[in-house]
Amino acid sequence: MSKVFIGGAAGFAGDRSDAGVPLVRALAQCDGPRFLMYETLAERTLALCQVDRRQDPGKGYSAALERLLTPVLRLCHEAGVRIVGNFGAANPSAAAKKIATIARGLGLPIPRIAIVEGDELALSSAELALREIGGTLLSREQSVISANAYIGAQPIAEALDRGADIVVTGRVADSALALGPLVHAFKWNLRDLDRLAAGTLAGHLLECGSQVTGGYFADPGVKDVPGLAEVGYPIAEIEEVGDLVVTKPADTGGRVDRLTVIEQLLYEIHDPASYFAPDVVLDLNNVEVREVDVDRVRVTGARGKAAPETLKATVCIDAGMLGEAEISYAGINAMKRAALAADIVRERLSRRAPKLELRIDAIGALSILGTTGNTDWSSWETEDVRLRFSAQSHDSDLVELMLNEVEALYCAGPAGGAGVRRRKLPRLASASCLVERHHVKPRVSFLEDAS
Amino acid sequence: MKMRLRDIANARSGDKGNRLNIALVCHDAAHYETVAEQVTAERVAGAFAARKPSRVVRYDLPRLAAFNFVLDDVLEGGVNASLGLDGHGKSLSFLLLAMEIDVPASSNTNN
Lengths: 451, 111
What we know:
The structure holds two protein chains of two kinds.
Chain A: E1 3-10, H1 20-28, E2 34-38, H2 45-55, H3 65-69, H4 73-79, E3 82-85, H5 92-105, E4 113-117, H6 125-130, H7 137-140, E5 144-149, H8 154-161, E6 166-169, H9 176-186, H10 193-206, E7 235-239, E8 244-247, H11 258-265, E9 275-276, E10 281-283, E11 288-293, E12 296-300, E13 303-305, E14 310-330, H12 334-352, E15 358-363, E16 384-393, H13 396-412, E17 418-436, E18 443-446, H14 447-450
Parallel strand pairs in A: 1-2, 2-3, 3-6, 4-6
Antiparallel strand pairs in A: 1-7, 4-18, 5-14, 7-8, 8-12, 9-10, 10-13, 11-12, 14-16, 14-17, 15-16
Helix pairs in contact in A: 8-9, 9-10, 12-13
Chain B: E1 2-4, H1 5-8, E2 9-16, E3 19-26, H2 32-38, H3 41-47, E4 55-61, E5 66-72, H4 93-97, E6 100-102
Antiparallel strand pairs in B: 1-6, 2-3, 3-5, 4-5
């Protein structure tokens, strides 16, 4: 076998559902083991799914599952492309059942679906608090909603070894979604650190979908990207020694070159000598990135150091409700009217909800750069500004009060206030922990064994 | 000549909790030394002073003609705690790209 081909079809749960189709068509033309990988779990996503599962034991998988998989299941079946995704979220076995239902609805044979579990931690909040990295959130807050360790590639490789067409996981290291198929296809030894590092790098380059092929890159006039509206998602062609080429399907938009690849290579990295994954610590210092053809970039030189003794876990806790309300002021003297509106809401809430922490931004003037809620807008002369008020509290009534105060500006505030929008939604806070490996016991099962 | 970083480099930011990283990649490897001399961790800390970083570290990647800046405690607690609009800090790469640098004519191979 010469190469393994992995397509990165989703970088988050909100990613495009049609991105997978050109990938599977391109993978169908490749000679070698082929996989499609879906990364859909941001830090909070799993906690939101855990809330769903508590309300309905048949739910708790990624809400994007059906939307993402429906367009590709038939193509993958026909082309022999196997799928690995963490869309199982808080309930991988329910996700497996759902995939079987989708396949049945499409008139396809039921695929062999593997379920990877064991990321959920059975530790108490006090035990988790002892393991929190650099914070005190967990010792102050006791209402843990979800606690999941990032597990590695081994159970994914095992599932594929046992013949899975589709592997459904909950929380795993994003990069393990690629490393697992590589360990399986190349029979890599789990002590071969440089190969594990290379596979982790492959996963890191693929895990954000089009962020390596021209997505999240364009700056018109400086960094232009052709055909961004139909940007192609990435394919990594990996050799047995771990060297790889990043490319994308022909006839898609986007670009793959040194700059797009390096931006993603360093995305969410801290010390490039030590990128921690469950199976290996990846050292990027000797990595070389070379354009070898149009939209083909070769990446070599990943080095591995021994895996960390502990596993990282994300713990999500209930942080009450978040409220956001907005109102616009436009035309002559807009900024001064907006400032008056802000003062009115601030003054009324200081009497009626003195403990509520309120943040006010002036969108169009000062809302992001150089600010942590700075409300000195005196130097701004914009004639089109949108005020945004936000507050968070465990007392939902206080948040509601804030929203009402903003809405009341319609009649009782400065002249010309317009376009109020308001929303209130549950807020989750998250903390990171390091847990000893014996608390985490990954396990693989198959949907057909359950039924 | 005076330029902005945006003219000779790209940047992308990412978050983990309350920590921000910004990768800065030179369009042309010939500019690597110039950027290394002028875009120091101290200077980046100054550019982000409004967000009060507790620590700024620059990692150098000469083989990639790139740098990785790691800024601690600049995301208002992070995306799950901040009341601001950009709790991820995704837009903040452009704050770095606005930085002015003095590019010697000899290294300015693009023009």
